[in-house]
Amino acid sequence: MRHLVLGSSGQIGSHLIKYLDKKGEQYLEFDIVHDSYEDLRTPQHFLLENYIKNSDIVHFLAFEVGGAKYLERYQNSYEFIDINLRIMLNTFELLHKWNKPFIFASSQMAELPFSTYGNLKLIGEKITKDIGGLNVRFWNVYGYETNMQKSHVITDFILMAKKRGIIKMRTDGTESRQFLYADDACEALLILAKKYKELPKDKNYSITSFKWNTIGEVANIIDVLSSCNVKIGEKKDKTQMNAMNEPDPYIKKYWKPKTNLEDGITKIYNMYE
Fold this sequence. Notes:
This protein is an alpha/beta fold. It has a single domain (2-271), classed as NAD(P)-binding Rossmann-like Domain (Rossmann fold, 3-Layer(aba) Sandwich), CATH 3.40.50. It has nine helices and twelve strands. The strands form four sheets. It has a six-stranded parallel β-sheet, sandwiched between helices. Strands 6-9 form a two-stranded parallel ribbon. A two-stranded parallel ribbon has the order 7-12. Strand 1, helix 1 (13-22) and strand 2 (26-30) form a beta-alpha-beta unit. It is globular. It starts with a strand and ends with a helix.
């Protein structure tokens, strides 16, 4: 099976290509970070069309997004909305044209009507369902990151602890999330890709840990690893407003997460040594 990974330098994509390589899978990479020719905002994209034609399945992971601090700053801007609409419409057009099997990476925030990012993902889900693709909803995937402008909370806390000896939380830490280790997310994607033909396409496949943890608990885990100080903030969660929509457990028929939060954070912590 030849995989095409759109957004192969992103938070999930960068881990997926390493995982596919480790599993001996063939893959093609596509990301604007590599070259300006790999810009999904460009309509009638001949290089993308050629890659789609020569793949067996497409992982549509590309999106202009980052962690909570990035979303708070940019998600309601014209540029954020424009970029992501262009990425989706141009890509969906070619996937539909070639009737190519594909997995669209959505988010649990697609259920949150106050979230611009979530609304964009919901539009993507609707198009995916109409043209016969598979929707997956990711819940706070974490792993090693290099783009600090778009980094997520676990990376931010680890680097604070290592560089400064103190974790300065942006919020009071009471908001809850379901965190999933990147390798577990990649395993789920590979399983869904291999079982694609037999999977019902009217389901939303929730790729998550199925376990709630507060941001304060994340800070405490890193505190144990680093013996740093933790300074609690005063703000409340503005990104998800502590909405705790429950994931659909249907995916458990095919896949279950393996890595608990403590072990996952420890692995990431050691990678930044």
